[in-house]
Structure formats: C-alpha cells, structure tokens
C-alpha cells in the first residue's frame, strides 16, 4: 500500500503496524535459519584479508545436506527446476532415512520434500491433533511423550516413551490411517528435518508405508503373545510398532545401544545374551582367587566402563568355547551351561596394588525366533548380540504394560527371570569351570609323568625262518 497525503492517522498507524509485523517475521526467519545458513559456501571476493579468514576458518559439518540443497528444499516444489530435482535426487537418495525406498520413489520424494529446522524445545507434532505432514530426522534428537488418563489416580499422566534419532521417520501413522496424532514429539536439541505434506504422502509414499504396516500386522498374528488381543488393539499396536534388522555380531541392546523403553520380539534369526562379569583377582594363601564385584559395591565403574565397550567390540563373540555350545532359554538351570569368551578377558590395574580387575564376557543363553526380551527381566551388565542376521519387532513398553491382558507380560517377565541365571549363578559356574580346567590339566600332567614305554615283543614275534638264517640264540634276542 503506497502512502498518500490524504491518509488518516488510523490508516498511517495500521500501515506502520503492518511494516513492523513483516520486519518481525523476517527477523524470526533469519534467527531460525542461522543454524544452516552458515553452511552456505561463501565465494572469494576482492577483500584479501576476508578471503584468508574464510579459507583458514575451520569448517564444522552440521548436516548431511549442503546449504545449496537446503535452499532448494525450502523453495515451493512448483518452482524447482529439473536440474535442481536431479541434484536433490542424488543427495537425499543416499540419506539413511531414504535408503530403504526404491529409486523411483526416491526420485518422487526429491521433487516434493521440504527442509524444516526447529530449535530445542519446539513441538513438532502434538497428540490428538489432526495430521498434515510426516517427517524424517536429519540431525538432532526428539522426545516422544504420550498423555493418557489414569483411571486409578483420576488424573492425566504424561509418559516419556522414547527418543528419536537421526534417520528416524515419524508422523506417517496418522496420515496412513486418517487418525489424530497418537503422541507428542518435541525437539530436545536443534533438529533438521525433511517434511512431506499429506497430499504428497498419499501420492508417493502411502502404498510403500502401507505394505510395511501390513507386514508388521502379519508378524504380530504369528506371535502367541498377542493372540488374546482384540483386532482393534492389534491394529493400534501395529501402528506404533516397527521392525529393525541387525547384522551378525551387532549389538542389539545394551551398553547404551538400542531402545531401552521398547520391548524386542525376535521374528528372524537368533541372539546371544552376554553377561559382563567384573572380577577382583588377588593372591590368597598362594592361590589365585576371584571375587565378584557387585552392583552396590563401593567401586567406581564409570572410569572403567569407558574401556569395556572397546574390549567387547574388539573380540565380540569370537572367543573360545570353554564350557558348552548353544543353550536355549526354557531348559532346566542344570543345563544352563555357559560359553566364556576368553579372548574378551582384559586385565586392568586399579589404584590399589592389592588386586587387579578382570573383565569376562559370558554367554548366558541363546534367544531364537519367537523370544522376547527387555520386558523387565534383570539386564544390568548384560547385552544382547545378534548371533545371525536378525530381525526384531519393536513395541513401546508403555503400550505393552497398558495392554496386559491375562497378566501375560508379568508371566513372561517371571519366566525370563527364572530361567536366565543371575550374575551370582554365572560367577559360581565360572569358578567351577576354572576348577575343572585346573583339575583336567593336573590329571593329564600326572598321567603323562607316570607313563612307561611298554614293550611286549618277544622272540616268538620274529619269524622262524629269520631266526634260523641269522642263527640267533633266543636267549640273547632282546627287544
């Protein structure tokens, strides 16, 4: 609106307010995008000192995308050229969150995906609100919370149900089924996201995501844990559940890896449960003696824990079998023999000279197809490692506990707690194995030291023709 000399004071004031609002919007946009605008490559100019500073300045890679790619992703999709779409197809097609999609889907996503940035503490999607888009996290972390009414306490309770990391997709459930948001997702750190609007999701991704959801539903129907659930509960669970695959020897859960607030159901492959024993080793009456370090003992584990992961990852599960091969959960405790990863042992001298610290990784048992874990069984100083290429179904713990029909999850937890040996039992078996190994060595040594060379040959074993030819007297023939 161009100013005129005949404007009234009210019109002048309204025009001034409009300009101020536009200025505030521009400032907010600049502040919100400073995080990624700094990544845009600056061109060399005529100022020599500025060029030197720009070339010597340490560059920190903040994102998987360049500033140019982000600028294209911020443009309306109708204004993107074919060259820009081809550039986006090459760049975002290699991102972790898009790797699972076929090439033709990646190409379509490049043409309709938008870049979004949120500072920490921002709500991305809110529970019970209608959906308008889905998201992929490029960088940063976001917290998932669910609010529900507790009939016992007669109040609304908010439950933190997990954290989303780079490479995670969310928001597709509400779009897929036409329902409101099932959870609130808020940023805990500055987050970069790729956004796909509802109309583009329906056109490009809906069929692919629906196929994945149907696969999860089929998996749930094959697991006996969910047989008493009604169809509505299964459908809602399939919406929030997801699947994940692991390579052989990859850590599934434990050592700050995995999702501690989710229950794991093995649908393909098998896993080991590995116990980490921390032992004090010292001399007592001339004998090497072991003592188990308990969790509540006054001992600084934090400093030593930094090296435990390195030790385990170095040797992983390639150690020597010293007791038995695979044993499965569900057998008697007398059959729960363990496998010691001797190569995983590492000695560390502590501050005191009275003892040394040893790390031992013991295979407690195997988990096969149909097994579940992280339901509430003891898990401290334990990790689950894929024995073969493994696929798991993940269901949030809060959902499992909320749908505890026939007390099934408490019974599963009690079963696992009963059949998986405790740390004390594992330590006892470890000592028995050490004693047996020492006894075996001493027994073999004693047998070898007492062995005498037996010679049962006699003159009668020599052919008679040879004896006649040689004229050897039998009395002097010695063997």
Overview of the molecule:
With 479 residues, the protein is of the alpha+beta class. The chain has two domains: 146 residues, Jelly Rolls, CATH 2.60.120; 194 residues, Jelly Rolls, CATH 2.60.120.10. It has 13 helices and 18 strands. The strands form four sheets. Strands 10, 12, 13, 14, 15 and 17 form a six-stranded antiparallel beta sheet that branches. The chain has a four-stranded antiparallel beta sheet with strand order 1-8-3-6. The N and C termini lie far apart (126 Å). The C terminus is likely disordered.
**Shape annotation:** elongated
**Number of contiguous helices:** 13
CATH topology category name of the largest domain: Jelly Rolls
CATH domain class of the largest domain: Mainly Beta
The N- to C-terminal Cα distance equals 126 Å
| Nearest-integer average pLDDT | 77
Strands, count: 18
* CATH homologous superfamily (4th level) name of the largest domain: Jelly Rolls
Annotated CATH architecture of the largest domain = Sandwich
**Class derived from helix and strand content:** alpha+beta
Stretches where pLDDT falls below 50 for ≥5 residues?
317-352, 474-479
User: Major sheet: size, sense and barrel closure?
Assistant: 6 strands, antiparallel
- Strand percentage lies at 15-25%
Measured as a percent range, the helix fraction is: 25-40%
* Tally of separate domains: 2
Radius of gyration: 34 Å
């Amino acid at each position: 609106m161009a100013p005129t000399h005949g404007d009234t004071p009210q019109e002048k004031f309204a025009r001034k307010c409009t300009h101020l609002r536009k200025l505030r919007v521009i400032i907010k946009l600049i502040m919100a995008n400073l995080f990624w605008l700094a990544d845009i490559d600056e061109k060399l100019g005529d100022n020599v000192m500025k060029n030197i500073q720009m070339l010597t300045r340490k560059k920190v890679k903040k994102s998987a995308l360049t500033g140019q790619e982000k600028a294209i992703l911020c443009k309306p999709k109708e204004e993107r050229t074919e060259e820009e779409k081809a550039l986006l197809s090459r760049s975002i097609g290699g991102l972790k969150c898009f790797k699972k999609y076929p090439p033709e889907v990646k190409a379509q996503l490049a043409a309709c995906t938008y870049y979004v940035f949120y500072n920490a503490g921002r709500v991305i999607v809110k529970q019970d609100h209608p959906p308008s888009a889905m998201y992929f996290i490029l960088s940063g972390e976001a917290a998932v919370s669910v609010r529900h009414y507790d009939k016992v306490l007669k109040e609304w309770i908010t439950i933190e149900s997990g954290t989303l990391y780079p490479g995670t997709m969310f928001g597709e459930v509400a779009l897929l089924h036409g329902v409101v948001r099932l959870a609130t997702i808020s940023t805990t750190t500055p987050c970069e996201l790729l956004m796909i609007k509802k109309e583009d999701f329906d056109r490009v991704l809906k069929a692919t995501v629906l196929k994945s959801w149907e696969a999860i539903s089929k998996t749930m129907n094959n697991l006996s844990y969910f047989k008493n659930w009604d169809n509505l509960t299964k459908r809602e669970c399939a919406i929030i559940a997801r699947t994940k695959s692991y390579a052989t020897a990859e850590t599934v859960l434990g050592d700050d890896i995995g999702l501690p607030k989710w229950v794991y159901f093995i649908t393909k492959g098998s896993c080991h449960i590995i116990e980490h024993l921390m032992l004090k080793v010292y001399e007592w009456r001339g004998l090497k003696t072991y003592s188990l370090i308990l969790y509540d003992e006054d001992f600084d584990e934090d400093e030593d824990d930094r090296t435990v992961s390195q030790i385990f990852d170095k040797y992983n599960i390639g150690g020597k079998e010293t007791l038995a091969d695979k044993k499965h959960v569900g057998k008697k405790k007398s059959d729960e023999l363990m496998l010691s990863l001797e190569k995983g042992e590492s000695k560390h001298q502590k501050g005191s000279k009275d003892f040394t610290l040893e790390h031992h990784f013991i295979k407690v048992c195997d988990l096969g197809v149909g097994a579940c874990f992280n339901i509430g069984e003891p898990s401290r100083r334990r990790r689950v490692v894929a024995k073969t290429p493994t696929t798991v179904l993940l269901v949030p713990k809060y959902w499992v506990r909320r749908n505890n029909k026939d007390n099934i999850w408490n019974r599963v937890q009690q079963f696992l707690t009963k059949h998986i040996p405790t740390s004390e039992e594992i330590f006892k078996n470890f000592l028995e194995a050490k004693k047996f190994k020492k006894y075996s060595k001493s027994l073999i040594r004693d047998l070898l030291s007492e062995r005498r060379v037996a010679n049962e040959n006699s003159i009668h074993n020599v052919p008679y023709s040879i004896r006649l030819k040689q004229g050897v007297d039998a009395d002097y023939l010695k063997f």
